[in-house]
Amino acid sequence: MIYSFKGHIPVIHESSFVHPLAAVTGNVIIGKNCYIGPGAAIRGDWGEIILEDGVNVQENCTVHMFPGKSIVLKEGAHVGHGAVIHGANLGRNCLVGMNSVIMDDAEIGDECIVGAMAFVKAETVFSKRTLIVGNPAKVVKEISDEMIAWKTAGTRLYQQLPTDCHESLREVEPLREIPKHRPIQEDFYKTLEEFRIQNKE
């Protein structure tokens, strides 16, 4: 669901994947290896929205702004399920947790992590590498090298997902019973604690 609006046609790099049930409208530029999940709405009707390379905007997220504003989600920004980015800029390799709301003219610094369900007030500026939680959101600590390495590894899964979707995602009729040789899915994700244990070995 890609829509032009007042002469603006979205620009989407061929390596990126926009799910058919997402909506991308107007003045939107999407870089390489980006993933846009089903139910996401990226509305560039009132201003420009730029997603740099490797950004993911997951299921049921909204990216929009007030008229006359333009925003950037910098390289590797990771927007969790159900989050709302309204007129805010996201720094490189940051993570916005599920169901968070980031309001107008807020600035999330590089490699920040915004906790799930946080509310970031308009015009709030957070410096790089901080953990941001709560309503209203505030800094609770700095991000360690270990935590940002874990976040970066998780984001790499989403940067691989566009290729996987291009190669294997197909609309199908459902099976009516479980097949005897149902494929087994890979176990390739580690929780932060598992990541810590793995990297100490």
UniProtKB/TrEMBL annotation:
Gene3D superfamilies: Hexapeptide repeat proteins
Source organism superkingdom: Bacteria
PANTHER family documented for this protein: DYNACTIN SUBUNIT P25 (PTHR13061), GAMMA CARBONIC ANHYDRASE-LIKE 1, MITOCHONDRIAL-RELATED (PTHR13061:SF29)
Protein name: Phenylacetic acid degradation protein
Organism listed in the record: Ulvibacter antarcticus
